[in-house]
Design goal:
Helix content is 52%, strand content 12%. The protein has 317 residues and is an alpha/beta fold.
């Protein structure tokens, strides 16, 4: 049982509302793809392939989905276009279940280990600091003691933003002056969390995608600083991606997964875009759990990602 079950009543309503633009776009494209057709034939499949690619599902994942639907059509001999949404829902859900780890209810904090250290990475503008603030709020609402570390010391605005979130949520923020060594900030944050018996510490990092070597070295130093305090590397490295950027989110995921060991992802800003299909492609292609999706501005609008619920919401009637 996860720590965020108290949001469960709002989850489906928020999910449906947050994915409404993507759903309208996808349904409109599918309607055009099957116009004048009663059965799923080669033309429909070609049109469906274009629908999925232009919905930012990604080429590799799209081809995999089309192959699965082709096999279904061949097996069943006759598949009507009226069944297409249900088939899409089933095949995409099956694909994601086969190709990824099990769904979780967000971060599960082990009872025998604290503080749980989450290192948050991602480029500027993806909603990284907002995600940190919302996570801190949800942990605190669940009765957990939270510390934040402002290790993005290259932008004054980044430190200011996380301090504002700390004040808003009511959790301490460990920071140093601008230009300080990010690893030193991470060390101080984890040390303070240990000294104060915190359950979780969330560390922000610089949102620069300068070059892989520089990024790798910087994140390695931060990981080593954490390890000096608690004896292990961060428990989780959370990559935050902006879903509204579509294929650019894929590229960022490639760069960060090459630069450091990313263990989970959060995909934000899905409520303002028709590119929600990117969640399917990223979840499938990178085999890294998408733990959270951002569906709005509210504190509760950062939701644990459940593949089946996501696909049901997107392709359900």
């Amino acid at each position: 049982m996860g720590f965020f079950d108290f949001f469960s009543k709002q989850k489906k309503e928020t999910l449906d509302e947050g994915l409404s633009k993507t759903k309208e776009s996808v349904f409109g494209k599918i309607a055009r793809a099957v116009a004048g057709k009663s059965t799923v034939d080669e033309d429909v499949l070609d049109n469906l392939e274009e629908v999925l690619v232009t919905s930012d599902v990604g080429v590799e994942t799209t081809l995999n989905i089309i192959e699965r639907i082709e096999a279904r059509v061949a097996r069943d001999k006759y598949v009507s276009t009226a069944e297409l949404n249900g088939i899409l829902r089933d095949e995409i859900a099956s694909l994601l279940t086969e190709n990824n780890t099990e769904d979780t209810n967000g971060f599960e904090l082990p009872a025998d280990h604290k503080p749980y250290v989450i290192l948050v990475v991602g480029v500027n503008g993806v909603g990284k600091t907002t995600t940190i603030g919302k996570l801190a709020y949800q942990f605190k609402q669940a009765g957990k003691k939270v510390f934040l570390g402002a290790a993005d010391t290259f932008r004054a605005a980044a430190v200011e933003q996380i301090v504002i979130w700390g004040e808003r949520v009511g959790v301490p923020v460990i920071k140093q002056q601008m230009g300080s060594d990010p690893a030193a900030v991470a060390y101080d944050a984890v040390s303070s969390a240990v000294a104060n018996g915190a359950d979780v510490v969330i560390i922000d990092t610089a949102g620069r995608l300068h070059n892989k070597i520089g990024l790798m070295n910087e994140l390695t130093k931060i990981r080593n600083a954490v390890k000096k305090v608690v004896g292990t590397a961060p428990d989780d490295v959370l990559l935050v991606l902006d879903g509204s950027t579509g294929q650019n989110a894929f590229e960022q995921a490639k760069q960060f997964t090459k630069a450091t060991e990313v263990t989970s992802m959060a995909i934000t800003k899905l409520d303002g875009t028709a590119k929600g299909g990117v969640v399917i492609g990223i979840s499938d292609q990178f085999k890294i759990p998408v733990k959270y999706i951002g569906l709005g501005e509210g504190m509760e609008d950062l939701q644990p990602f459940n593949r089946r619920a996501f696909v049901d919401s997107l392709f359900g009637e």
